[in-house]
Design brief:
Blueprint lengths: L8 E5 L3 H13 L3 E5 L2 H11 L3 E5 L7 H10 L8 E5 L4 H9 L4 E4 L4 H24 L11 H18 L3 E8 L2 H8 L1 H18 L5 E6 L2 E7 L3 H17 L12 E7 L8 H17 L5 E3 L16
Parallel strand pairs: 1-2, 1-3, 3-4, 4-5, 9-10
Antiparallel strand pairs: 6-8, 6-9, 7-8
Helix pairs in contact: 2-3, 7-8, 8-9
The chain binds magnesium ion.
Length: 314
């Protein structure tokens, strides 16, 4: 699904060249970008690759009909969130019921009025964006705007299983601001909040669009870096670390903020489930703390169990 500020892209899946010609012209006039597929399989492939804002789906097509296409779109986690408007030559109520039961957002009978269709497209796109905002609001940390811990737990499981299936690298980082309690006590809680927000800002600057930055709790953050080797993850952490250390705090010029980072990545032993990943990153973080703070430490098996990670290390 595309960000809100871009023109919506509609994917039309219909076997009729006439409908394609009609909509291509009319919708382009309305500022809606247009992708064309003339069969169900072609449409499914385009949907997955292009992630359109909306799909207009013909019911009656040879080989694979619109209901089967809809069923497959809704069964795939990548495409299930794309709103679908069904187009049908007949307005049979059984067809409508079937379409809604399978998860279509709207149903339009041919021949249709293009202005009405345009209005329905815009309303479906808006509704979907709104639903997504609401969904995201429950997953976002209010103070920093980063993902929250509940979402982190969900995504870590998902990303680990994707990495396992594809066999690609993935890294996990736990980081913690140094001496944060003292900072709060000395400068006050508004300063503490400003630091958390400033740190989140540095993370947003340094991470790639598909990295996942979360506020894990208090002054602790967790970063999931899909596709990153441990060296690449360490490089990212080092840039974040240096930026935070060098950052000037406009309202609090006397502030000096640093952070400690623990990194773990695929390929190391003992990383089985999400909990063992978190534990390994925590161990590395603890080693960074006990090694003097303001540093990045990589997990290795020698950071043994005798070193208990202490969340209160500060
Ligand atoms: Mg047809």
């Amino acid at each position: 699904m595309r960000p809100q500020d871009q023109a919506p892209i509609a994917l039309l899946i219909d076997d009729s060249p006439y409908i394609h010609r009609l909509l291509a012209v009319k919708l382009k006039d309305e500022g809606i970008e247009f992708l064309a597929a003339f069969s169900g399989p072609e449409g499914l492939e385009l949907a997955e690759v292009q992630m359109p804002s909306i799909i207009l789906l013909d019911v009656n097509m040879p080989d694979m009909d619109g209901f089967e296409v809809l069923r497959r779109l809704k069964a795939d986690t990548r495409t299930m969130g794309i709103p679908v408007i069904m187009l049908s030559g007949q307005a049979k109520s059984t067809d409508k019921v079937m379409a809604f039961e399978l998860g279509a957002m709207d149903f339009v009978a041919k021949p249709f009025d293009v202005h009405e269709l345009r209005a329905r497209i815009n309303s479906a796109v808006r509704l979907t964006q709104l639903m997504r905002l609401l969904e995201n609001a429950a997953r976002i940390d209010g103070l920093t705007g980063l993902w929250n811990r509940a979402y982190f737990n969900e995504r870590l499981e998902a990303e680990l299983s994707v990495a396992q299936r594809k066999g690609g690298p993935i890294s996990l980082v736990m980081c913690d601001l140094d001496h944060f309690k003292k900072l709060n006590d000395t400068f006050g809680h508004p300063a503490g909040d400003a630091v958390l927000q400033g740190f989140a800002q540095v993370l947003r600057q340094e991470l790639r669009a598909y990295d996942i930055a979360c506020r894990y709790g208090g002054e602790e953050f967790a970063l999931i870096l899909p596709g990153a080797t441990i060296q690449e993850a360490a490089g990212v952490c080092e840039r974040v670390r240096a930026n935070v250390e060098a950052k000037s705090w406009r309202k609090y010029p006397k502030l000096a903020v640093t952070g400690s980072f623990g990194v773990t990545a695929s390929g190391l032993s003992g990383l089985n489930d999400a909990a063992s990943w978190i534990e390994a990153a925590d161990r590395a973080l603890y080693a960074a703390k006990s090694g003097g703070r303001n540093r990045v430490r990589l997990f290795d098996e020698r950071l043994g169990a005798e070193q208990q990670p202490l969340r209160m290390a500060g």
